[in-house]
Amino acid sequence: MNSSIGISLYPIDGLDPEQLLKYADTAMYNAKEEGGNNFQFYSSEMTDMAYEHVVMERDLREGIRNENFEVYYQPKMNIRTGKLTGMEALVRFITPKKGIISPGVFIPIAEETGQIIDIGEVVLNKACRDVKKWLDDGLFNGRVAVNLSAKQFSLPDLTSRIDIILQKNALPSYFLELEITEGTVMDDPNEAINIMRSLSARGIHLAMDDFGTGYSSLAYLKQFPLNTLKVDKAFIDDMKNERGRNMVDSIVTIAHNLDLHVVAEGVEQAHQIDILKTLNCETVQGYYYSKPLSKDEFTEFLKQQQSKATPSLISSKKSNVASIS
Ligand code: C2E
Ligand code: CA
Ligand code: CA
Question: Would the CB of 90 count as within 6 Å of ligand 1?
Answer without folding.
Answer: yes
